[in-house]
Amino acid sequence: xxxVPSLPTHNIxxxxxxxxxxxxxxxxxxxxxxxxxxxxxxxxxGIYKVLRHPEKQITTYIPVMxxxxxxxxxxxxxxxxxxxxxxxKGGIRFDKNVNLDEVTALAAWMTWKCAVVNIPFGxxxxxxxxxxINMSVGELERLTRRYTASIIQTLGPDSDVPAPDVxxxxxxxxxxxxxxxxxxxxxxxxxVTGKPVEMGGSLGRREAxxxxxxxxxxxxxxHLGMPVKGATVAVQGFGNVGSVSADLLAKEGCKxxxxxxxxxxxxxxxxxxxxxxxxxxxKHKVLEGYTKATQISNEELIALDVDVxxxxxxxxxxxxxxxxxxxxxxICEGANGPTTAAADAILDEKGVFVVPDILANAGGVTVSYxxxxxxxxxxxxxxxxxxxxxxxxxxxxxxxxxxxSKQHKVNMRTAAYMLSISRVATVHRLRGIYA
Length: 435
Hints:
The chain is α/β, with parallel strands linked by helices and about 425 residues long. Among the domains are: about 55-185, Leucine Dehydrogenase, chain A, domain 1 (Rossmann fold); about 210-360, NAD(P)-binding Rossmann-like Domain (Rossmann fold, 3-Layer(aba) Sandwich). Helices cover about 45% and strands about 15% of the residues. The chain contains 14 helices and twelve strands. It has helices spanning about 25-40, 45-50, 100-115, 135-150, 170-185, 210-225, 240-250, 275-285, 300, 340-350, 355-360, 365-375, 385-410, 410-430, and strands spanning about 55-65, 70-80, 90-95, 120-130, 160-165, 230-235, 255-260, 265, 295, 310, 330, 355. The strands form two sheets. It has a seven-stranded mixed sheet with strand order 9-8-7-6-10-11-12. Strands 1-2-4-3-5 form a five-stranded mixed sheet. The longest helix is centred in the last third of the chain and has 26 residues, at about 385-410. It starts with about 25 loop residues before the first helix and ends with a helix.
């Protein structure tokens, strides 16, 4: 880790502290962890001020012609948090609950996530406030293309590279790439990642986040001296990340005893056939009605006596209200921000080993980086090469965070923030301030 000058930090004050008092505010959760790491690093006040602010926040209003002939105006957001280490990288989500605080927090998390696995990207995030489930394919295409046009000044393979996120997919990434390419007059595949393989997407991208979770679980179990074969696992969330994590962990010999989605949770202490559950969801869209396990509540799943808990769905599922009920020995955060900052202390006191989101789910952005590299080089790798290089980065990153955790006697989350912030701060010192 780069050395950081030992300067006093007692005058570092969070200027908006009174503004963020709710436990579940994502920006406050990010900032409280950032502040703790900055204090341990003795981060100088000037760099602190730079790193606690986003570089750019864009709010745009997007008129779209709906299928019924009426015009609706949607609100779009794009936040570039920090680009000192390279182009901004971050997904675009379509959801009714998108807001500026959430997008800013996610953009900051992307900054630290890229730095913790040491890939040359900065952090960004975007979103559109809409209800995509009740929109037609044509409406979604018009919304995606108009949103792309409204932020096109920031987009580019050297400046800002989006990706799929909540309620967006590779088809929408194709629309973004096409819109950008039409604007500049030639095809630019590297402007976006998470594309279809046929137009420059990377093999292994769909499974990348779940594969990264699996690799981190294996490293955590090895560190704790626990066998992988037979380890019991509960997976909260059975979308792309949760289902792939469960499937890959099962193939490594773990016993998946519980899974869940928005319709509820299902538990079988003898183990769930993950491939069968995936096939059921492919047919029925949800787990509701699944008969090969007993239905329980999501609260009960969180509190199961298992070796590993993988929260792989939404933010803020582990809070001060339920952290004390957790009996898992390892939590590997497949989702962004599943644990509130206030719940961290409870988990520490219970001795739970937490692999934080900015490390555990960094497999996705790592393979997005691979896709960007392949697009720029015009040469594409086999899936085995992608998986081997992902494993190397994830394992090395886990061990670097673990070493820092031991060195400073802090938990893995604080160590991950220290490592990533140190890397970003070092680049700021080297680059200086342009005047």
